[in-house]
Write a structure and sequence with these properties.
With 299 residues, this protein is of the alpha+beta class. It has three domains: 177 residues, protein yfey like fold (Sandwich), CATH 2.60.460; 63 residues, no CATH class; 33 residues, no CATH class. 16% of the residues lie in helices and 30% in strands. Strands 1-5-6-7-8-13-12-11 form an eight-stranded antiparallel β-sheet, covered by helices on one side. The protein has a five-stranded mixed β-sheet with strand order 4-3-2-9-10, with helices on one face. Strand 3 and strand 4 form a beta hairpin. It is elongated. The two termini are 43 Å apart.
Length: 299
């Protein structure tokens, strides 16, 4: 069972017609701002800041197993982003409907500073060969880190054996998939984790809770765990020294070790309502005491 959440209202039609989206296609690495290995949080932050360019985003995951389920972002109507289940890193990028008929801004794909595909410049099989060279025959054209398909999902338009060479060369690309290079050649799970790459530098790789061990008075070979003492944060790249944080550390110590927060959330303390002068009238107004408390807590 897949749960879906939708965000962002659509902008006006007049605004849509004035905009277009350009993406640099880098096989095995990225499609424009979407980079293989990026975290789900980073991509959602980007989409939230670019609401005009991406008016409708659907988030899908398995509601029966949300912790380890892969996450799919459907950026309507043309991009699908698959994130791995455990680390939630961008695993696969899929581009479909390169020429949206009714909704969505025009899409322009660039490859090495040349226009690969656009609404008035459809990408065909001959164009793929021109830019990427020959490859093994099949229903798709596959290259390291990228492959091209000639039919939509669920569509059955296999090329007839009687089709001429010219008709075959003019087949229009309907789908482009970008993934890490050598992914298909290896024995890795296609829905597995993303291999470590440069974009992960500085991100948290794993967290270990530190506990103290003491010998049990009943069995010398058995150890009991005492209350948690802190955590150890391990970062990418894997050879980076971990950061050890003990419970009880000050906010200044955490800011020094981890840097400034990406976002600050403010929470009102309901206990300060007692100081409100309008409490008897049933309305609550913010007082100087409440404001000062927020500054002390979150500055």
């Amino acid at each position: 069972m897949w749960a879906t959440s939708t965000s962002y209202p659509s902008p006006s039609t007049s605004l849509k017609s004035m905009l277009s989206l350009e993406y640099d296609l880098v096989p095995g690495h990225a499609l424009g701002p979407f980079v293989i290995g990026s975290s789900l949080w980073t991509v959602l932050e980007y989409l939230r800041e670019a609401k005009v360019s991406y008016p409708q985003v659907n988030v899908k995951y398995d509601s029966e197993n949300p912790v380890t389920s892969p996450v799919v972002l459907h950026i309507l109507p043309y991009i699908d982003l698959l994130f791995s289940g455990f680390s939630q890193k961008l695993h696969t990028i899929s581009v479909r409907r390169l020429r949206p008929a009714r909704q969505g801004m025009p899409v322009v794909l660039l490859y090495r500073n040349e226009t690969l595909a656009a609404s008035d410049h459809p990408l065909r099989k001959a164009g793929v060969t021109k830019y990427f060279g020959p490859t093994y025959p099949g229903e798709t054209m596959r290259y390291p880190g990228v492959w091209f398909g000639f039919q939509e999902d669920g569509e059955d338009i296999s090329t007839s054996s009687k089709a001429t060479a010219m008709e075959d060369r003019n087949l229009e690309v309907k789908k482009i998939v970008i993934c890490q290079k050598d992914q298909e050649a290896s024995n890795e799970d296609s829905m597995g984790e993303v291999r470590e790459c440069q974009v992960m530098a500085g991100a948290v790789a794993r967290v270990i809770v530190k506990v103290s061990h003491t010998l049990s008075p009943f069995m010398d070979t058995k150890k009991t765990l005492q209350p948690h003492k802190g955590i150890s944060l391990f970062f990418y790249p894997s050879n980076t020294s971990p950061i050890h944080i003990r419970f009880g550390a000050t906010a200044e110590d955490l800011s020094y070790d981890l840097g400034p927060p990406l976002r600050v959330f403010y929470k009102e303390d309901d206990r300060m309502d007692i100081h409100s002068t309008s409490r008897l009238s049933g309305t609550i107004e913010e007082t100087d005491c409440e404001l000062n408390l927020r500054i002390r807590l979150f500055d």
